[in-house]
């Protein structure tokens, strides 16, 4: 019988035993047994795997796979046990999806790799008692799910309780299961009277057992288990929530801090594999900000008696120095987790600027939310001012689920970009709110609903709904670990499912996966995932006469489509600004709605073309796995075409408003109608596939179906058509004729190679090369999103060389520096950003200069 001999010359700790079991499992599935005894190494049916710890390899988790001394052997070397486990799980993955298992083992090779991103995490939220209790209590689910995460080198799992509601201001709270989590999990000595109405001791014990199992199984695989406790309000305002299902009994609000401190100690002793805690410390966690310092000092005081170091992670929104000091007093490793792109998934780079709407405000005496809404407002949707070199905490990014919640998306280029840019300013990594996050939130699910939202019973996956996104997890973990990972590491998975169509599926999902992140940059009507949901977009009308109220709270006056700020206003511009620049003959150089529309159309074309070839070449186009891909790729391509039409129409309307020339409006209406037809096609494509109410919350913007949104678009088109007819009847003169609104493109190559480091407190010279007819300006700021840009004209030094100097007082800062160039052709007046985006849309479109400080290695 074919045998793989695993040489264990020394003891290996966690997670190597799990990795050996995983390799053994895959080999047995392929008819190969494993052994640790001496074997006849001359047999053609034998392969030998030798394991070695080699601390000279590099940092934690580093591994390589190389030939052994004989042709039948390979050696897995790791800098530590985690590195060895990654090498073994890589072998297991190759055996699972490869050819002859003995040959696969013998010929396995992997160059030495160290993790580009130290923390590679996912967040899994408990959002619904109906949909989430079944998987929480299911050990088979945890076993398969955690195996997948560990195999893909995802090394942190955040299980979040209490994200169902924002307990400071949500009304009609119903499903609060595990929101104030402690009494759902433990009985606390001296607080025996605290409980949950209707929750039996047996159910509470089962919940605790599930948490203990999940955390221990994660640790066994080398995954850091982070427990999120996102709510500390004992109860919502009962007058606003008469239908509350799980009332906390025996505990007054005034005793919540002391009880929570005691409960934390009990919970951490009952679950010794919990390695960290995440707290939502701003007002949405239910604690008024005027009294939060004392509250959190008491709660975190319950951690001081724990006999292990914990990661104390505070969701960064509204965090100030006093909260940092409170967390530091616990003796744990303090971490802030900041949002990557507001509450959405954007492109992999970080916003070059946050919206003006997020700037700090004067304190207005709001005891509930005054810190977050005013002085620290700029912390809500990015890394804010947390990247100081002298900080006493780590910074982790979190990608929120507003842009993509259930459609299948996975682009290797974007994920490699996250692998290169998630450690900006010394950040330690990134956590992805996984697909289906918030599914069923705010009691929006019913008994019998499929968590994966499929109406077609052939496509639903039951408790294995996460398996739809196995390719996403694979790219996420492996490309964060190594942005230059061998493409074969995901193609082998695709071949196993789609055979000769694998590369075409890769291209189709890759092109489709860029569409909604790109939409988010330009068309984000709200930074909140509760309102702006581009997958199932609630329309914000272009016509002024059809104002929508859905987004009014998160936009600045006049709150029109044309003035809606992009999520990155430094690099992207709204329709009105673009139109004004065209008329003035001096475009801003920022990326325009027309440019984004052009990108979206091209991406949709690429996705459709690749999908068509994939359908022709896959062995079974009606297989559930292919159908899931096909429907979701088509849906995203059609969404791209819809938004392309809407963005173009917004420009046409802006030009009409400025010129009174109805031709611009008529042209915009024509493109909008094409977008509307794409939305109608989307309704047809998904009609029998997905359920009619895609529930992620109770607001109109959080549930429904694309068919619900068609009428909104039709109403907007009708109003635009009425305005065009009125303009023609009034006989408005054509004041301006523009040759077209095609997006500008770079007309000259600009060379800029910034220095690797700068010395704080010394002037910094920036150099560039450009033709003589180019004007260049430097736009620079500190790596602090509360900072404003300094703009410096570059001076011609000699021939095609330009220079500008950042003064010593600018570089004398605890922050690194970011900058980009604005290039303008003095002849054509065309303008563009340098370095800007490349074809992948996955690069960093600005430069980051790192300070050379004594404490920096």
Secondary structure: elements and pairs:
Layout: E1 3-7, H1 16-29, E2 33-35, E3 46-53, E4 63-67, E5 73-78, H2 81-97, H3 101-106, E6 110-113, E7 119-125, H4 129-136, H5 139-151, E8 156-161, H6 182-185, E9 195-196, H7 201-220, E10 224-229, E11 248-249, H8 256-270, E12 276-279, H9 292-301, E13 311-315, H10 321-328, E14 333-339, H11 370-375, E15 394-399, H12 412-421, E16 429-433, H13 470-481, H14 488-498, H15 502-523, H16 575-584, H17 593-617, H18 624-659, H19 662-686, H20 706-729, E17 757-758, E18 764-769, E19 774-782, E20 790-793, E21 795-798, E22 801-806, H21 808-811, E23 817-825, E24 831-834, E25 847-851
Parallel strand pairs: 1-2, 1-3, 3-5, 7-8, 7-16, 8-10, 10-12, 12-13, 13-14, 14-15, 15-16, 17-25
Antiparallel strand pairs: 4-5, 4-6, 9-11, 18-22, 19-20, 19-23, 21-22, 23-24, 23-25
Which short descriptors sum up this protein?
Chitobiase, domain 2, TIM Barrel, 6-stranded mixed sheet, 35% helix, 15% strand
Q: What gross morphology would you assign?
A: globular
The residue ranges in which pLDDT falls below 50 over 5 or more consecutive positions are 739-743
Number of domains: 4
Fraction of residues in H or I helices: 25-40%
The radius of gyration is: 28 Å
Strand content: 15-25%
Name of the CATH class of the largest domain:
Alpha Beta
The number of helical elements comes to 21
The CATH topology of the largest domain is what?
TIM Barrel
Write down the overall mean pLDDT: 94
